[in-house]
Amino acid sequence: MKVQFAKSVEAYVELVEKKLLKKEACNNLILGILERLKQNNEGAYYLGWVEKDKELLFPFMQTAPNNWVLPDLEQFVGEEVIRVAVKQIWDQGMEVPGVIGPEQYATIFAKEWEDITGNQPVVHMQEWIYQLDAVNQVQQDGELVIAQEKDLSLLIRWLQQFGEEAGEKITEKQAEAIARRNINQHSAFLWQVGKHYVSMANRSRTTKNGATINAVFTPDQHKEKGYATSLVAALSQQLLDSGYPFCSLYTDTSNPISNHVYQKIGYYKVGSAIVYSF
């Protein structure tokens, strides 16, 4: 077996896309990142794969300083394939702040990294991956609006609160950068009831056939009123109407409320992922 790293994003996409598209919704993270890198490949990134006899076995990647991302494949490739990849990452002196992927792969990765470095992995989050092909009818009291520059301070505040709820600290500087980017890309959406904004969501990365929704947040004073349900249903429908055959999103497996909300809208489980931090 041999580990290689691509220098060209386009060449890497050509190599791995067909294999990843076989479980497109489950691979929305790695496919979405690659789609983004095709548009803007500034910054450090590592596009790796394991091959045997010139046959692609296992792609993996990182946009530094973020977690390594592992794919969900139709057939299990075997523990040794993952170990070979991890050893090459170590040999090349690459940073490993964490890893995200299907549990069967991410756990092997984390154990091998611990064996090599002595750094003990910690489970940061376990997630369900959902897909939606059609939106169920849900009551929608309010209106979906796209966030504008005037909404910047609200998005910054809500993104920080979203991070606190998700266990991901987002500084004000980071929140501002995210909010500005989302506003500029016309991907940030708000749910408006009367004259007030009550919930937010973001159309995140896209793949060949799908769009991912993330950063769904409702402040405490507006919770338990169905606003997030209405928002995600309306945004999902808008994405389907714009030509995407499906939508996808991640949820925390330990949050029964959000999982119930998304299933009510029409989302169904297609996979899972685990996040390890070192």
From TrEMBL:
Q: Start and end of every N-acetyltransferase domain?
A: 142-278
Task: State one molecular function term (GO).
Answer: acyltransferase activity, transferring groups other than amino-acyl groups
What sections of the sequence does the record tag as coiled-coil? none
This protein is called what?
A: N-acetyltransferase domain-containing protein
